[in-house]
Write a structure and sequence with these properties.
This protein has one helix and 26 strands. The chain is mainly beta.
């Protein structure tokens, strides 16, 4: 593993930020996010992608997909690694599904790791089914661990005709938004065990084709949703709902955000991250976001080509962020350390 040169990265970022010295909506940044360092933490797989990150019982846990390409009927597998300090990482789990009857290829992808009921890790895995190059179905799976090292075999969940993207636990329930193809709605559901889900609401954003959605909660029990869209101008949306989360309001962010993640800093104040376009090039970015959908303090991380799908963890005034990028050749896994001011 090699640590990226802070001097070189700082110079590159300074040039980028000088060319983008204002917020997305034209307001000067007041409290800049400060990039402290970026480290490559995994490059052993042929193609490493789709990360997530959490903190559990004294360790960071990072999960991602290993495969041969981004998709296209690739037989992807899922790995979990952990670290106490974010520098030295140890593999703790590896999940794969064999071909069925030598005709169906199982592509495991989009792993999402979270803390369930405060005492165990839950790993949610999307599984695409292929026959040849044709996608023929979905078969999401969930695995649990009490200690982060010993895991049960991934088991199916009740959502099997849509893609449940980033489940999150809040109180006694796990909530997730699932999507399907180019429909104009997404579905919010909840579960007490992470396997059997019941409907809560259907979300209709003001733009077509919403898909990947990250859910978070503020201290007032409001549900916050950062929504990627594929239709219209592809602007992301910030959604908000009070309990029981059946009535939603939306604010356009005004910028495409692919593979979105979101953290609540305080009511109405957030940090978001994902793939954005800078000078027409896809880059992994992190920025501040407010309840009006206003992005500010845009920070561009070392990235390029196929990249993004971050995971965010806040520890004190430090934001830890996993992501993948192919700017150094093949797709590898990186960890950024960012100071929140």
């Amino acid at each position: 593993m090699k640590r990226l040169s802070w001097i070189l990265s700082g110079a590159i970022l300074l040039l980028l930020l000088e060319s983008h010295p204002m917020t997305v909506k034209g307001q000067a940044a007041v409290h800049p996010l400060q990039l402290l360092e970026v480290q490559k933490i995994w490059d052993y797989g042929e193609y490493n992608s789709f990360t997530d990150l959490t903190w559990f019982k004294g360790y960071f846990y990072c999960t991602f997909r290993e495969g041969k390409s981004h998709a296209e009927a690739d037989e992807g597998h899922i790995r979990v690694i952990r670290s106490r300090d974010g520098k030295k990482w140890t593999p703790v789990a590896y999940f794969e599904m064999p071909e069925k009857e030598h005709t169906v290829v199982f592509d495991m992808r989009d792993p999402r790791i979270s803390v369930a009921h405060g005492d165990s890790l839950m790993l949610s895995i999307g599984v695409s089914l292929y026959i040849g190059q044709k996608a023929v179905g979905m078969a999401p799976r969930v695995a649990y661990s009490k200690d982060g090292v010993h895991w049960n075999d991934p088991e199916p969940v009740s959502i099997h005709d849509r893609w449940p993207w980033r489940p999150v636990w809040h109180g006694k329930y796990e909530y997730v938004v699932s999507y399907k193809g180019d429909t104009n709605v997404v579905w919010l559901e909840k579960s007490e065990d992470g396997f059997v889900f019941t409907p809560v609401a259907t979300l209709h954003t003001p733009r077509n084709q919403p898909n990947e959605v990250t859910l978070r909660f503020d201290k007032y029990n409001n549900m916050i949703a950062l929504i990627r869209t594929a239709g219209g101008d592809r602007s992301a949306f910030l959604g908000k709902a009070k309990y029981p989360y059946t009535h939603w309001t939306y604010k356009a962010v005004g910028r495409y955000i692919g593979g979105p993640d979101l953290l609540v800093l305080a009511p109405g104040r957030y940090v978001c991250a994902g793939r954005m376009y800078v000078d027409d090039q896809p880059r992994t970015c992190v920025a501040r976001l407010d309840d009006q959908g206003t992005l500010s303090d845009l920070l561009v991380l070392p990235s390029g080509g196929d990249n993004s799908y971050p995971g965010l963890v806040r520890r004190g005034n430090i934001l830890w962020m996993s992501y993948y990028s192919s700017h150094e050749g093949k797709a590898n896994i990186y960890l950024a350390k960012i100071k929140l001011k």
